[in-house]
Amino acid sequence: MSIFSGISEKLREKRLKKAGVDTSLDSKPYLLNERSPFALTESFRSLKSSLSVSVAKNGTDGVSFLLTSAFPEDGKTTVASNLSLMFAHSDVKVVLVDADIRKGRVGKFFNRKNSPGLSDYLSGQATLDEICQPSAVSENLYIIPCGTISPRPYEILESEKMKELSTVLKQKFDYVIYDTPPVLLVADALALAPLVDGAALVCRHLSSYVSDMANALNKLSFAKINILGIIVNDYKGAKKTKRKNYYYYEHYGYGSKRSEEKPE
C-alpha cells in the first residue's frame, strides 16, 4: 500500500530520473508513493506522529486542525495532502477539507473536480454526501474540494452552517484537516480558528522570510488559536549534512542490505 508524496514536482522528477524511473508514467507527481525517497516518507511520518501527540483526542470526537502559510508557494497544500494520506495509512478515518475557496488545489492532487465542494454545501447547493467522497489512494481518506468560487469566502467560512459541518465531520472522522489560504493575504484561516483544535504554519526553506512567519504567527495568536508549530517544507541541508543523512537513510532504508541481515 502506498503512503507517499513529493517536495516539488521538478525536484522529484529529477530524483526519479536519476534513479532510472520513467516519470512519464507517474500520474500523481505530488503525492507520496512507493517510489518516493525514504527520507521524504519518514519526514511525513514523523510530522504525523508529532501532530497526533500535540492534539490528543478527547472522548469520541475526532481531532481537527488547519494548515496555513504566510504567503503562497510555500507548499502548504502539498504538506496537507501528504499528511492526510499518512494519517489515513495509520488505519484511521481522515477527511481533507479544501477551505481555500478562492484558489483551492486539493482537487488537483487527487484528480477531483473542485465542484461540487465546500462552498456549494455552505451555500445550500449541494449535500454533504455529494461533496465528501473517498479518495482513490486510500479507503480511509476522504476529500472535500473547495467548490465554486464564492465572492464572500470569509463570511461563509464564518457561518453557522460551517460550525455545524465542523461538528459533524469530527463525529464522522478521527482527523479533520483544513487546507486554508495564506494568512497574511486573506483572513479566511482566522474564520476557522474557533472550530479547530490547533494550527500549523508551513514555510519553505530558504524562501520564507522570518519576519513574515512572525507576522503570521502573531495573527494566529491574536485569533486565540492553538499553534502547534512550524512545518519547514523543502528543506535543503548542507552538503556535508546531506552525505551523512544519506548514509543513515541507506542504513535504515527499506530493502537495504543491513535491514535484511539476520540477527546473530
Features of this protein?
264 residues, alpha/beta, globular, disordered C terminus
Walk me through what this model shows.
The protein has 264 residues and is of the alpha/beta class. The chain is built from twelve helices and seven strands. The protein has helices at 9-18, 38-54, 76-88, 106-109, 118-122, 128-131, 153-157, 160-172, 188-191, 210-222, 239-252, 257-260, and strands at residues 63-69, 94-98, 133-134, 141-144, 175-179, 198-204, 227-233. A seven-stranded mixed sheet has the order 3-4-2-5-1-6-7, with helices on both faces. Helix 2 (38-54) packs across helix 3 (76-88). It is globular. The two termini are 31 Å apart. The relative contact order is 0.16. The model is unreliable at 1-9, 19-29 and 254-264 (pLDDT under 50).
Summarize the structure.
The chain is an alpha/beta fold. It contains twelve helices and seven strands.
How many alpha or pi helices? 12
The count of strands amounts to 7
Q: What's the main sheet like?
A: 7 strands, mixed
Radius of gyration: 19 Å
> Strand-residue fraction?
5-15%
Structural class: alpha/beta
Question: Topology, please?
Answer:
Elements: H1 9-18, H2 38-54, E1 63-69, H3 76-88, E2 94-98, H4 106-109, H5 118-122, H6 128-131, E3 133-134, E4 141-144, H7 153-157, H8 160-172, E5 175-179, H9 188-191, E6 198-204, H10 210-222, E7 227-233, H11 239-252, H12 257-260
Parallel strand pairs: 1-5, 1-6, 2-4, 2-5, 6-7
Antiparallel strand pairs: 3-4
